[in-house]
Amino acid sequence: MFMRYARQMRLAIQEGGSTDPKFNTQLRQIIDQALKNKMPNSTIQNVIKKYSDPNQTKLIKFVQDYKALGKVHMVAVFLTENVAGTKQNLQPIMKKFPGAGVTDCRSLFDERGIVQATAPEKMNSLEETSLEEACTEDAIECGAEEIEIADFESKIVNFMCNPVEIERFKRELTQKGYSIDFAGIVFIPKQTITLSPSEIETMERLKAKMKEIEGVEEIFDNVEYPEKSA
After folding, report:
1. Residues 6+ apart with CB under 8 A from 39
2. What integer is the mean pLDDT of 83-87?
3. What is the set of domains in the chain, with CATH numbers?
4. Order of strands across the sheet with 156-161?
5. What are the percentages of helix, strand and coil residues in the chain, rounded to 5?
6. Which one, of 15, 52, 5, lies nearest residue 166 by Cα?
């Protein structure tokens, strides 16, 4: 996970043009997320120092579609400085799994922006229905498409928005007192499929292997996974 945060900080520095969190909102928010997940501050500072040179090789964000088991469609998001090398590193993995490989399935997914935020302290005493109503009102004012109470006890709310509006949406939520926990783009399947237990196990192994490749950030698929018991 720390390597993922390091890549995201590198991209934030690259896009924001500054290594100072005071002047680079995207970098500051990623640092906050990393600290919440116990990434040492010394490691964070080393990452910032390492990627402070504006002349270094740029990170490239790209998206690739894959298939597996003849019926599963996946959208993988990458952050890498070597697109061709990353694709090549994935080829041996695909060959080891039945029906796995590159495809074109983007039309089967909706691309959405998601901002996960902790509600303002003034909402801490609200019941769940009242919390949802208050957050919905803020969402409408900020231009969100929909909301979801992800964790009532922690007052964590997911806001869905147009992907191109993420940065503006984060700023407006922050102005309303929300603490941004995560922001990014997700690919939501228009239709899901069910798999047998053995097929689900195969998919989990495939995605785990894919995530071992440096630069793999997210993998979305059209599988409806059963809820895991507590």
Report:
1. 1, 2, 5
2. 90
3. 1-51 (1.10.10.200), 60-109+189-221 (3.30.70.980), 110-188 (3.30.70.980)
4. 146-151, 156-161, 109-118, 179-189
5. 45, 25, 30
6. 15
DSSP 223: B
Whole-angstrom Cα Rg for the chain: 19
Question: Residues, the chain, total?
Answer: 230
Those residues with Cβ within 8 angstroms of residue 63's Cβ, 6 or more apart along the chain or in another chain: 75, 76, 77, 78, 106
Burial 123-154 (b: 16+ CB within 10 A, else e): beebeeeebbebbeebbeebebeebebeeeee
Beta strands in the chain (DSSP E): 60-68, 72-80, 101-102, 109-118, 146-151, 156-161, 179-189, 216-221
**156-207 tens-digit pLDDT:** 999 999 988 888 898 899 899 998 888 888 999 999 999 999 999 999 999 9
- The single residue listed with the structure tokens 């192994």 is 205
Q: Which two tokens stand for residue 90?
A: 């994935």
Q: 179-189 and 109-118: which strand pairing?
A: antiparallel
The Cα 112–Cα 52 span in angstroms is 31
Q: Which two tokens stand for residue 27?
A: 């970098």
What token pair was written down for 194?
């069910």
Count CB neighbours of 3 within 10 A.
10
**Percent of all residues in the chain with a pLDDT value above 70, rounded to a whole number:** 98
